[in-house]
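Hi C.,

You asked whether I'd gotten around to modeling the 120-residue construct. I have! Everything is below, sequence then structure, no commentary in between.
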Amino acid sequence: QVQLVESGGGLVQTGGSLRLSCAASGSIYRINTVAWYRQAPGKQRELLAVCTTEGVTNYADSVKGRFTISRDNHKNTVYLQMNSLKPEDTAVYYCNAVIWEDSINLRNHWGQGTQVTVSS
């Protein structure tokens, strides 16, 4: 059983920074692509940032230049550094990881979500 546990969310003022963490545990053979999403009330879940196994990253236009995704493969942890936060960044943030649970089983996993609120 694989679990993704997020942390680091909270309340921050406009222009502030937060760093989200997502720690994977359980039956992990290898972590493939990782990503961060967010979902604001009444809106669809939005893909923000992706990081491949080789460390190649890609970002949504809405966060490019402000957010940075990174990963520590030794700790099975993914991070999202968020700078210059805006009220429109307020949402529940989710991490996502495609994980080889063994040499045969590749599965998609989600964290439980962490709330980020940016006050104006």
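If it helps when you're writing up: The mean pLDDT is 96.

Thanks,
B.
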